[in-house]
Request: fold
Amino acid sequence: MEFVDIRTLKEVLIRKGTRVIVWADFDVPMEDGKIANDFRMRAVLPTMRFLLQKGAKIRIISKLGHDKALPMIGISRHLEKLLARKVIFIKNPFEPSAIKNLSHSSEIIFFENIDFQKGEKKRDTHLAEKLAKWGEVFVNEAFASSHRDRTSMTILPRLLPSYAGLTTEREIKNLAEPLKKPRRPFVAVFGGVKLATKLPLIRYFLKKADVVLVGGAIANSLLGAKKFETGLSRIEPFFEKLVLHSKKLHLPIDVSVARPPLRIGKARDVPVSSVAKKDIIVDIGPRTTEEYMRILKKARTVVWNGPMSMTPTFFMGTGKILKCISRTKAFTIIGGGDSLAALHRTRVSPLKFDHVSTGGGAMLEFLAGKKLPGIEALKRKNRK
Reply:
């Protein structure tokens, strides 16, 4: 994971009136139709303010990938409040009147969800060329979406002088540099639901780290592979003996279980050998939590992605592990949408960690040594 050869925002020559297209990650979590956590939006503000101070004319590309309960226009209105600047929302950036009246406007222009554009998911050069007419410079401030090979993320930046935004630069540096020669003991903590998604990362860190702690539904799959009863818990088939028998891999020794309908206060703690066929594993148990915390307190580098519990209904293990990591003297990296939600719920300040990544899938792929298409498009050798 070497620091990739990309140009950063500090290198770009911005004159007053320069039109800058910013791909900003505003795919925020929501509850009851309202923004639940605007961490990703706030992470982009330094880049926005930097460009505004230089006199740039900002045009924003973004997406909203969930249930559309809050239209993109709601995101633009929230940005308007955060920046205390007028933001003009455009539903169709290719409508002739919009291009004629607003292409050179000094106001911040915010486009409708880019995923609504035909060709966005098909690497459409024609779409990229139409988008490029809105700007003279491209800035990637969407690390969390950089693992997706989409038109606006990978084709558009090859048509314009392109740079990494301040947050994207920090993501790359903080995820790559400290892990080249990590301070030891180096502990990786993984939870969440999909084993298939986390498996490449577990394999990687079983080689790189000193200890790998696993919780959440992915731990259930590994326990099932070791012939433990997992009841009605969600599991995925798994057969890799090198992973299962690694001395670095730590799985729960006890769990919290409940039976449908799942309700707060209805869980009970049992050893992993005592899970019944009608049980659902909803959290790591207290003995496991204490053991994991004991290991984390001695760590000098910690990477965490994914909750230990079936959140948000059950949260005890996740909350305790997160607070423990925030109090260590280790270099700490956390990330992922569910991890950010857990951070928000515990009300632990992001400043308690050395790096809080805006990325979920992008962070996982980057840490596992994969190339992210959106970052590859920024490399100097791939410039127009």
User: Anything to note?
Assistant: The domain at 9-170 is CATH 3.40.50.1260 (Rossmann fold). DSSP finds 14 helices and 17 strands in the chain. The radius of gyration is 22 Å. The chain has two domains: 9-170, 181-367.
